[in-house]
Write a structure and sequence with these properties.
CATH class of the largest domain: Mainly Alpha
Strand order of the largest sheet: 5-2-6-7-8-9
Largest sheet: 6 strands, mixed
Number of strands: 10
Strand content: 5-15%
Distance between the termini: 56 Å
Structural class: alpha+beta
Order of helices and strands: HEHEHEEHHEEEEEHHHHHHEHHHHHHH
Number of domains: 2
Number of helices: 18
Radius of gyration: 21 Å
CATH architecture of the largest domain: Orthogonal Bundle
Helix content: 55-70%
Shape: globular
Length: 430
């Protein structure tokens, strides 16, 4: 039981901006802090998934999109201690300095041939020094840090103790029965910290409903007009609230979100439907915290098999599965009905690909939220996809493990194909 609490503490953390470009900013900042001189060059060597997820997303506080401005800001702000909130408090002067670095063409980006889905190598040069920072597997996991070829030990803080990489992998593949027992039996005081994420993610959802962010998926769904075919029923209010948070985040809102398993959109996808429904049903804080613990842990559990970065949409599949589970819990469902919901959601969303982080993520999240609501509704009526239905197996754990097989065997070349398509747009327009 204690290990699952550790998982929650390590896998749920605040971030400002999309985690891939922000992780690049973090890596550049780590290296830039070591040269302690005027920067003469920045080299980035990145895995395809990092490039894919950083190309089209808004960078907080800049009004700009993409990897270059995020990397340049990391070189300027040099606030690595803030990790995924490194761009918090960005000033106009810092933005101008970063733009100056780009105007001087000091940044070079290369695709790294590596088996790692998450790989960020930042080399920062000055007149007299070169510093390197390498992040692998996790967005804040510093595998290598060096100045002038001499390896250094990264600074550690309390939050680094027992990071996700050091936890027993069996914790991530724990049974649904154990997850459910943990949610039911853990003292509320130990789970109360999850409510901070509820406040944070609800705030950015409300911002997305107010502002003209991205495709305005949530905002337009919630506005009553002759052009809107959606009503104001419970389901559509939940979907709109969830999509709106992604609208704001993907379009560069400077508001933080509470991430799950390394992704803000996953955090939004698995918690906002639960937060919105709990409010509509008038549930108390303890019930909300337990439902959020369930939705987060099941999302993390599914994500363990899909992979940290993947050709499959983690927000849509893992986040949708988590959301459906939390919805069933709030409706008074049983463990058996939670399993039904998981089967139904995977049957609905298992083919959703990840084509990078960008404003249309809000569309995928709205689709996944709708699937979660449908799946939970069927589950509460004891209806479940079964053995004769495609990738669904009789045991829900086997169904979840099938997602790993799908990624590793069926979609091995999908990431590269997606990246090639995305990169071809630049060639086509030139």
């Amino acid at each position: 039981m204690v290990n699952l609490l550790e998982v929650l503490h390590k896998e749920i953390m605040p971030a400002e901006g999309c985690t891939e470009p922000i992780a690049v900013a973090y890596a550049v900042s780590l290296a830039a802090e070591l040269v302690e001189e005027e920067i003469t060059g920045i080299e980035l060597f990145l895995s395809g998934n990092i490039i894919k997820n950083a190309m089209g997303v808004g960078i907080p506080g800049t009004g700009q999109t993409g990897l270059p401005i995020a990397a340049a800001l990391g070189a300027v702000v040099r606030r690595s201690e803030r990790k995924l909130e490194i761009l918090s408090g960005l000033t106009p002067a810092e933005l101008a300095s970063a733009e100056g670095l780009l105007e001087r063409k000091l940044l070079e980006v290369e695709l790294k041939d590596t088996p790692e889905k998450l790989y960020i190598e930042a080399r920062v040069h000055s007149k007299n020094h070169t510093a390197t920072a390498i992040l692998v597997k996790e967005h804040t996991n510093v595998q290598y840090l060096a100045k002038d070829g001499q390896r250094l030990e990264p600074k550690m803080d309390k939050a680094d103790c027992g990071d996700p990489l050091s936890l027993d992998p069996e914790v991530y593949s724990v049974s649904l029965e154990d997850i459910y027992a943990f949610v039911q039996n853990t003292p509320f005081g130990d789970l109360r910290f999850l409510l901070e994420g509820a406040v944070m993610n609800k705030a950015i959802s409300e911002e997305g409903l107010r502002g003209e962010y991205g495709l305005q998926v949530g905002r337009k769904m919630s506005q009553q007009s002759a052009l809107n075919l959606f009503g104001a029923d419970v389901a559509n209010r939940i979907i709109a609230a969830t999509a709106a948070a992604s609208d704001a985040r993907m379009d560069g809102s400077a508001m933080p979100v509470m991430t799950t398993a390394g992704s803000g959109n996953q955090g939004i996808a698995c918690t906002m439907p639960v937060i919105a429904l709990a409010e509509l049903l008038g549930k108390d804080e303890e019930t909300l915290a337990r439902a959020m613990a369930l939705s987060n842990l099941i999302t993390i559990h599914v994500k363990h098999y899909i992979g940290r970065l993947s050709p499959l949409c983690g927000s849509g599949i893992a986040g949708g599965v988590g959301a459906g589970s939390g919805i069933v819990y709030l409706m008074g469902g049983t463990l058996a009905q939670i399993k039904h919901s998981i089967q139904n959601t995977i049957a609905s969303t298992s083919g959703m690909i990840c084509d990078g982080a960008k404003p249309t993520c809000a569309l995928k999240i709205s689709t996944a939220t709708n699937a979660a609501i449908q799946s939970a509704t069927l589950a509460m009526n004891d209806i479940s996809a079964g053995l004769n239905d495609g990738v669904i197996f009789e045991k829900v754990e086997d169904t979840i493990k099938n997602m790993e097989t799908l990624v590793q065997e069926g979609l091995a070349a999908t990431d590269q194909a997606i990246l090639n398509i995305m990169l071809s747009k630049g060639a086509a327009s030139s």
